[in-house]
Amino acid sequence: MSGRTIWKPDLAPSLRAFLRTESGSAGVLVAAIIAALLWANIDLGSYEAVWRTQLSLRLGHLELSRDLQTWINSGLMTLFFLVVGLETRREFDLGDLRDRRRFVLPSVAGVIGMLIPVLIFLVINHGGPGAQGWGVAMSTDTALALGLLALLGRGVPDQVRIFLLTVFVVDDLIALIVIALVYSDDITMMPIVVAVAAFAVMLAIRAAGVRRGSAYAPVAIVMWGALLVSGVDPVVAGLAIGLTAFAYSPGRAELEQVSGLFRSFREQPTPKLARTASIGLANTLSPNDRLRRIYHPWSSYVIVPLFGLANAGIIIDGPFLAQAFASPVTWGVLLGYVVGKPLAVIGTSAGLTWISHGRIRPAVGWAGVLGSGTIAGVSFTVSLLIASLAFTGDQLAEAKVGVLSASIVSSALTWTAFRVTNMLPKDKRTRALIGDMTELIDLIPEVDEKRDHVRGPAGASVTLVQYGDFQCPYCGKAEPVVRQLLGHADLRFVWRHLPLSDVHPQAGLAAEAAEAAAAQGKFWQMHDLLLEHHDKLNITDLIKYAGDLDLDQKRFHDDLISHAHAGRIESDIDSADNSGVSGTPTFFINGRRHYGAYDITTLTAAIRMARARARLGREAPATRK
């Protein structure tokens, strides 16, 4: 353990980590697309020959043979949709969508954001041979869109990226249903029954509390293989598994139990206890978190770029481009994304806001809605997957041109939208990007000036709450950052106790010492001393600190011996449990949990954003009147 505090943001699912992974992988995917285009235009024969290479699996008389492209599109892409399902479930369990009312606008915008592009495609291709490919025009590539948004929208707040993600949570779900029902040929019922039975077995294993991946892997393979044989695209299996993987934060009781396992190993370092401690630590994470941490990097940096390399290769020359841009398939895809997606996102957001009189409205400002709508025209993964199922020959190549052209045009429109937004005055730019919607509150209970220990002006627009442990070295490292932040005139700081006694045996007594000092009017002076001397907190040290602060040492000593303030500490611990806090230091900014680093740069940026939102929130009622 080495005295290290288990800090929840290192373990809990973090949307910002997800966004960073997607942003970084966007460059890899773009490079793979360019490589595919160069390869196909240099030597189309070798490009097609590689991806048509047959790969077979044999088990006795049973044989499964597919070409390399199919193994990627229907095999590896199953893991991509597993990650999609996992992130969708995470948003429902831990993200903004845990408030189901906030799912109304994203879900409606997501559905309409698929219907309008499809309608545009069908109008352009009405009565033509390309009409059966309408599914190509409906699905945003959320991963690529998030990555490009990070590149094109410098300084765009996380709220815009989160809004984009939540709007198109339903996008991939519906796309998978369409693939299963519309673009799956020669469906055989018996293998589907086998797949459903395998899925039921997986749910039963999960209900039994089994956490080992080795117990699920064979059943998942059977499910995938049965769907492949049935004629239903087996990527559906990945999505279904991902959606059933619960997401939750590690509980303090579970972490304390793991600490006990590590202490046992330290006392008796045997291979058996090492394995027990390792398994116990892994089991504190939710199935969703464990699976995402395994498959998300592979999906983002290997599987999706490999899919792009295997599917983006088309011949690009003057005659072919002239043919493609004369094709209704190309224009149906291009206009469906470039016109249909922004129209759907902006129109739905404005319509629901008007109909509900502002009760249902986007979680970002108009510029955030506009940028989300334009970047939603970026399509690739699912579009090419459906194109490969719906088309062959020239029509397939024309659909690919439409997909790639839509991504280029949508990227240019997004850059323009945010470029214009950045030219606005600061206050108008902030409102245009983040809007005035109230954020969800994670802190329970809210700050009470009469009860909580508060530093800073009572009327401050930003409140920074820290759950801390006086023996925690990381709380000591965070203290200079907090002091620097307190230099801001518009900030108040609140300390709540969370002594992690399983890791720091003197933390509980130190917390009581702070409360004993508070009873004599010197909480913050004792708070500062304790953090400064976090490695010297035995009772002799504490009484010495009381003398240094000119406290009544006898009263102070009696309070410690009688645990006079233990109830106050317990109430803070209950607050931490209710707020989902299990490690220190953990920060809340205006009631919203802060995930990520607690260095001065990160916290300052988060506080600046909270201050802007608070200012907009105060102005909003007058504006709506």
Automatic annotation (TrEMBL):
It catalyses: Na(+)(in) + 2 H(+)(out) = Na(+)(out) + 2 H(+)(in). Residues 432-612 form the Thioredoxin domain. Signal peptide: none annotated. It is found in: Cell inner membrane; Cell membrane. One of its GO terms (biological process) is regulation of pH. The chain crosses the membrane at residues 21-42, 68-86, 107-125, 163-183, 189-209, 221-249, 298-322, 334-355, 367-391, 403-421. InterPro entries: Na/H_antiporter_dom_sf (IPR023171), NhaA (IPR004670), Thioredoxin-like_fold (IPR012336), Thioredoxin-like_sf (IPR036249), Thioredoxin_domain (IPR013766). GO terms for cellular component: plasma membrane. Keywords: Antiport, Cell membrane, Ion transport, Membrane, Sodium, Sodium transport, Transmembrane, Transmembrane helix, Transport. One of its GO terms (molecular function) is sodium:proton antiporter activity. It is a multi-pass membrane protein. Na(+)/H(+) antiporter that extrudes sodium in exchange for external protons. In the N-terminal section; belongs to the NhaA Na(+)/H(+) (TC 2.A.33) antiporter family. This is Na(+)/H(+) antiporter NhaA. It comes from Micromonospora cremea. The gene is nhaA.
